[in-house]
Design brief:
It contains one helix and eleven strands; from the N terminus they run βββββββββαββ. The chain is mainly β. The chain is globular, with a radius of gyration of 21 Å.
Length: 196
């Protein structure tokens, strides 16, 4: 999962860089959920689409973790849920409507972690991040370093294997494109370029 947002793709969340009012992202980018218009009590949400769906079998232990920070009208209840390939929430995975921790203020990251076991097989396709506004003022929530891992251990964030594979594939494609513009033939001691 590109949960560190380092490609600049928010996968449904707005990727942003650090500014004076936000915490420093762990890399160049973090995802953001923002609202400046709705009344108190509104559920403000955005969906993070997993680049590769994750199938969780019944009875397996999994752990989710992510960092978040909130400000102003977003400091109350979360609105974070996992969603299955049937478009329905998968309960018991994320923060859901629990209260945000805001110790240290809006520029301090909080880490949410939860180990869970589902009672039925589910394929997770997206994660919903958001907040329930606690006033009519504007508010925001930023998210970074999302991890969903098999097992009950919480590890420091690291790129998913498919992220590394995608980076290697991109470099291979770029090299192939560079090489396809011309091939140098060094037979018989002469160098000639043949266009393809």
């Amino acid at each position: 999962v590109d949960g560190g947002f380092e490609t600049g793709n928010g996968h449904g969340l707005t990727p942003i860089t650090q500014t004076a009012t936000y915490p420093q992202p762990f890399g160049d980018y973090m995802g953001r959920v923002y609202d400046g218009t709705y009344a108190s009590g509104a559920d403000i949400i955005n969906y993070f689409t997993l680049p590769k769906p994750v199938t969780i079998n019944a009875g397996e232990k999994w752990t989710i973790s992510y960092y978040y920070a909130t400000a102003t009208a977003a400091t109350g209840k979360a609105s974070d849920y996992a969603y299955g390939d049937d478009g329905q929430p998968v309960f018991g995975v994320m923060m859901e409507h629990a209260n945000h921790v805001t110790t240290g203020g809006q520029q301090v990251w909080q880490r949410y972690t939860k180990t869970f076991t589902l009672t039925a097989d589910k394929t997770i396709t997206k994660l919903r991040f958001g907040f329930v506004k606690n006033s009519a003022a504007g508010g925001w929530k930023v998210i970074d370093n999302i991890q969903l891992e098999r097992g009950n251990m919480v590890y420091d964030w690291h790129p998913a294997p498919e992220d590394t594979e995608n980076a290697i594939s991109t470099v291979k494609t770029q090299l192939a494109e560079q090489n396809s513009t011309g091939i140098t033939n060094r037979s018989n001691g002469r160098a000639t370029t043949v266009a393809q």
